[in-house]
């Protein structure tokens, strides 16, 4: 049984990387339109405003937090047009969402912000056709505050996935224009909404305003319990199901044609959600005849959830010998993100 299967059976927190320990894509990220910390998708849609996403090691809500997720306003924007917003989104796989369906749950988190006011969290179906929006209040500037948002997954209608697709989207909205606002909060409604009509929309107005999050948890029940801490090995096993970056040093391969050489290798990977897309960085291939060389091209790649196949071609020399053992050296990015 894999570590991931054990996690599905025993974990109480449906959020992966809720303590923001893993950032395979690095930081800082300016005006992001995609994944930032692993499993956390951030979108900035502002005409003149700009922002940076990074980690924060100080301030932190408690000693059991190494990093907080930080959004910093770099260029202010006084008001938002209808379609503009900033939001931070977490996509929960259908298998992990399924235990919550039909039950009450609690969404809890620590938040720190320079601008007190009304902010929003939202829950949304995988097809954006059912939404649940709730306000929360930042009472004091520059102070960590613990928030609890109750929700029951008793929706009807909408498009939902309970297997390897997006089961549920969970998000935070620091500011939002009218297109994605609703006056109806605290219940499931039709449509794509990420904020309420009473959101303050002051966050984006001042340079160096910050919005920090830590220890995000979504659990079944009616009470928010202590944040579920995992060791780094467990957290990495969770995020590797969706995205893996690693360096391969001197991996075994074989030369499969004579003359202009083609090298062929298999690599076992952490089991992923689906067969991943493969991105190769700085590949080198070694042979007895020619030593280390940069391949002319990647002639083919193939992937399964647990294994990838790499084929590299070198047309620069013509004295490769089929059947010889070789080596591969390269960086690999595997993406099975939603």
Give an overview in words:
This protein has 338 residues and is mainly beta. The chain folds into 2 domains: 3-240, Jelly Rolls, CATH 2.60.120; 243-335, Sandwich (Immunoglobulin-like), CATH 2.60.40. Helices cover 6% and strands 48% of the residues. Strand 18 (277-287) and strand 19 form a beta hairpin. The longest helix has 9 residues, at 232-240. The protein is elongated, with a radius of gyration of 23 Å.
Q: In a few lines, what is going on in this structure?
A:
The chain has 338 residues and is mainly beta.
Keywords:
Immunoglobulin-like; 7-stranded antiparallel β-sheet; mainly beta; 48% strand; 338 residues; disordered N terminus; 22 strands; 3 helices; Jelly Rolls
Contiguous runs where pLDDT drops below 50 for at least 5 residues: 1-9
Order of strands, main sheet, comes to 2-3-6-11-8-9-13
CATH first level of the largest domain: Mainly Beta
Please provide the ordered H/E string of secondary-structure elements.
HEEEEEEHEEEEEEEEEHEEEEEEE
Gyration radius over CA? 23 Å
CATH topology of the largest domain: Jelly Rolls
Shape: elongated
Number of E-type strands: 22
Biggest beta sheet attributes: 7 strands, antiparallel
Task: Count the domains.
Answer: 2
Strand fraction equals: over 45%
Output mean pLDDT.
94
Discrete helix count? 3
CATH superfamily of the largest domain: Galactose-binding domain-like
- Based on the structure given, which CATH architecture of the largest domain is correct? Sandwich
Question: First CA to last CA: what distance?
Answer: 24 Å
The portion of residues assigned to helices is under 10%
Overall structural class, as computed from helix and strand content, comes to mainly beta
């Amino acid at each position: 049984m894999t570590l991931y299967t054990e996690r599905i059976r025993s974990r109480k927190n449906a959020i992966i990387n809720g303590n923001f320990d893993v950032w395979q894509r690095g930081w800082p990220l300016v005006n992001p339109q995609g994944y930032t910390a692993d499993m956390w998708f951030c979108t900035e849609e502002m005409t003149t405003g700009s922002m940076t996403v990074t980690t924060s090691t100080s301030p932190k809500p408690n000693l059991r937090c190494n990093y907080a997720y930080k959004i910093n306003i770099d260029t202010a924007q006084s008001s938002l047009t209808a379609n503009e917003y900033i939001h931070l989104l977490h996509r929960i796989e259908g298998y992990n969402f399924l235990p919550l369906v039909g039950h009450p749950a609690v969404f809890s988190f620590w938040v720190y912000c320079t601008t007190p006011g009304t902010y929003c969290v939202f829950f949304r179906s995988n097809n954006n056709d059912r939404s649940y929006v709730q306000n929360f209040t930042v009472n004091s500037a520059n102070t960590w505050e613990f928030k609890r948002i109750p929700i029951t997954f008793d929706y009807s209608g909408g498009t939902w996935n309970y297997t390897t697709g997006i089961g549920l989207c969970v998000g935070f909205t620091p500011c939002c224009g009218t297109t994605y606002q609703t006056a109806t909060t605290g219940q499931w409604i039709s449509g794509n909404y990420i904020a309420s009509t009473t959101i303050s929309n002051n966050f984006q107005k001042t340079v160096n305003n910050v919005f920090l999050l830590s220890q995000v948890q979504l659990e079944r029940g009616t009470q928010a319990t202590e944040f579920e801490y995992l060791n780094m090995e467990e957290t990495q096993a969770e995020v590797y199901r969706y995205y893996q970056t690693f360096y391969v040093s001197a991996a075994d391969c074989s030369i499969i044609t004579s003359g202009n050489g083609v090298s062929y290798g298999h690599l076992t990977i952490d089991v992923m959600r689906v067969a991943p897309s493969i991105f190769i960085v700085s590949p080198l291939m070694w042979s007895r005849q020619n030593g280390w060389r940069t391949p002319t091209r990647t002639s083919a790649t193939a992937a399964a959830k647990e294994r990838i196949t790499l084929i590299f071609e070198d047309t620069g020399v013509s004295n490769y010998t089929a059947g010889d053992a070789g080596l591969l050296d390269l960086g690999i990015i595997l993406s099975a993100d939603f």
